[in-house]
Amino acid sequence: MPDLSPADPNSYARPDHAAVQELHLDWQVDFTRKVVIGSVLLTVKCVEDAQELILDTRDLVIKGVKDVATGEAVTYTLGEAHPNFGAPLTITLPPTPRENIWKVEVEYETSPSCSALQWLSPEQTAGKRHPYVFSQCQAIHCRSLLPCQDTPAVKVKYSAKVRAPRSLTVLMSALREGQKEKEDCSTHTTFKFRQPVPIPSYLIALAVGDLESRKVGPRSLVWSEKEFVDQSAYEFAETEAMLKAAEDVCGPYVWGQYDLLILPPSFPYGGMENPCLTFVTPTLLAGDRSLADVVIHEISHSWTGNLVTNSQWEHFWLNEGFTMFVQRKIEGRLKGGEPARHFSALGGWKDLADTIHTRGANDPLTRLVPDLHGVDPDDAFSTVPYEKGHTLLWHLEELLGGPAKFEPFLKSYLEKFKFRSLVSGQFVDYLKEYFKDQEEVLAKVDWQAWWTTPGMPIVKPKFDESLAVPCAELARRWVEWDPVSTPCPFNKSDLDALSPSQVRVWLAELLEEEKAPLSPEKVCMMEEVYGMTKRLNAEIRFRWLRLGLKARWEESVGPALDFVTEQGRMKFVRPIYRDLYEWEAMRERAITVFQRNRPAMMHVAAYVVAKDLHLRDDS
After folding, report:
1. Is 386 a catalytic residue?
2. pTM, whole model, 2 decimals?
């Protein structure tokens, strides 16, 4: 198999020789063949002795490459394909590019199996009238959508012209610059976009569907199919307040527009921070705005991840740990101060403990900075970089004088590294430079242990648990209740006194691994008293279903299988499938449902769930 770049273990690109600076995309979306057809024009900065440009590709049909300056074809080779990382496209550079800038155009088309794209038939959409396609390029799927330097070390500006059937709307992770019907083909419309801020390839995004929008703020629209657009506008009406709170923490918002696109249920993540157009799952539509913390998270990425980016996926915590940290700062400002921030962090700690138990305390992929040589980043994806990274930053804030001292550093860090990509060592160097008067304090931090120790963080912060106390107390009462000798002491008001976030934590308490599963009788009584199955909050529903599965309460199996079929969010789907797999009597039923639903799932979700169910790649 071909070797990958020593600079990034997941990419063939050598930006130290020739780095792409700008892209222009000229695409046509073909729903009949399920491909994107067109070209990409790349503006490349070369070192003086550079002889070749290496791009990442996966399952692309390369039709030709030309030097834009001369219009002449140039020599290229498509290398041997690696099963995880695709094939390098090596393009011969001209002897003397003008001012070391070279423009090359690659004509190509995607494969129908493009891992970045999810194609939906009209029947799979809410309106059932038109087809739909959307992308998910993180972590290394952009190379299946276009030939590019698919590493977060490289940031590019881009523009695009996208033609799609006239009845559909095209959106991208960029500023909209109008649309027009083609004079020679009234069945199609051309949409234009521009992203003037340099971004890594994984943030290039596309969505085409029967979409409508509603204005929810001076710089924000909510987009979705019309069946959900008004509900979505209500759910995310507080977007501008979130943006302003984020600016208070991080500094000015540089992207101009902040829109939200509510995707079809098969979208595998809670949200994806595509610039100017955050993609979010419809599982956030709880009806009471109780799941808007995901939007706060994606807004936070506008600074931590999008503006300042990890240069390799091994340092993913620089994206996600910082974003969790900023998210909880914003939640504190909007939702009740430090107790609310601590309560959210405590919930994250419990989620991390569950992940570590599932993966194993010695799993090398639970390190904060794992070795990803030969590893698909999708295999490493978990809550670890989110919550373990957050814990490190929380610990540093405590060591260095609290929020009053650390928040100015955070703004300074974002200003220092904006538009750039970095690794963990660069963060530490700047931290030491900024806090040079606290050298003795920082000397106590064992950085190597933080980077390389698997399992839970080496330090647990002292969280304010005041909001968690009633959750733990109610969980304790359910664990200790003996339904044989004592009448049911619970009533509906138990949960009426708790916020939706507290109900989530109550269920998480009951799911903790050191606690024995509840009996089926207790879970059945819980349903009778609280009416849990009627709750619309997906986070509550998810934990409730898991509680029933762990109790081996058979009435939970059908709803659990419905839940993993009606939506594809990996946070929910993977644990439930794993629970069903562990319940040996339900294993084959779960596998059958997965195999039937697999074609409707996005690539990354189907890929990891197949592994969770111990299925072969060709199953």
Report:
1. yes
2. 0.95
Closest CA to 569 of 253, 284, 210: 284
**Distance between CA atoms of 610 and 504, rounded to whole angstroms?**
28
Cβ neighbour number for residue 80 with a 10 Å cutoff:
8
- Residue 485, classed as helix, strand or coil, is coil
With contact defined as beta carbons under 8 Å apart, do 201 and 150 qualify? Answer: yes
Instruction: Characterize 218-238 residue by residue with b for buried, 16 or more Cβ atoms within 10 angstroms of its Cβ, and e for exposed.
Output: ebbbbbbbeebbeebbebbbb
401: left (phi over 0), alpha (psi -120 to 50) or beta: left
Quote the DSSP letter at residue 444. T
Separation of alpha carbons 159 and 36, rounded Å: 16
Distance of CA 260 to the CA centre of its chain: 14
Residues 105, 469: Cα–Cα separation, whole Å: 61
Gap between the Cα atoms of 507 and 500, Å rounded: 11
Structure tokens at 107: 């004509």
Q: Please state whether the peptide bond connecting residue 292 to the residue before it is cis, i.e. omega within 30 degrees of 0.
A: no
Q: Which one, of 188, 121, 115, lies nearest residue 146 by Cα?
A: 115
Point out the catalytic residue in the list 298, 387, 397, 509: 298
Q: What spatial distance separates the first Cα and last Cα of the chain, rounded to whole Å?
A: 24
Cis peptide before 237 (omega within 30 of 0): no
Q: pLDDT tens digits for 89-138?
A: 999 988 766 788 999 999 999 999 999 999 999 999 999 999 999 999 99
Tokens 């799609």 label which residue?
Answer: 164
Dist CA 525 CA 522 (whole Å): 5
User: What's the number of CA atoms in the CB half-sphere (13 Å) around residue 362?
Assistant: 0
Q: Which residues contact 431 (CB under 8 A, 6 or more apart)?
A: 396, 409, 413, 442
Give the whole-angstrom CA distance, residue 345 versus residue 165. 46
Chain centroid, CA 311 distance in Å: 17
| Strand 185-200, strand 206-209: pairing | unpaired
* 372 three-class SS: coil
Query: What is d(CA 538, CA 564) in angstroms, rounded to the nearest whole number?
Result: 11
C-beta separation of 83 from 54 below 8 A: no
DSSP string, 374-401: T--HHHH-SSHHHHHHHHHHHHHHHHTT
Q: What is the CA radius of gyration of the chain?
A: 25
| Secondary element (H or E) of residue 298 | helix 293-300
Q: What is residue 2's predicted lDDT score, i.e. its pLDDT?
A: 47
Task: Pick the catalytic residue from 386, 413, 530, 577.
Answer: 386
Residues of the chain with pLDDT under 50: 1-2, 619
Backbone angles phi, psi at 80, to 5 degrees: -70, 140
* Strand bridging mode 206-209 / 18-30: unpaired
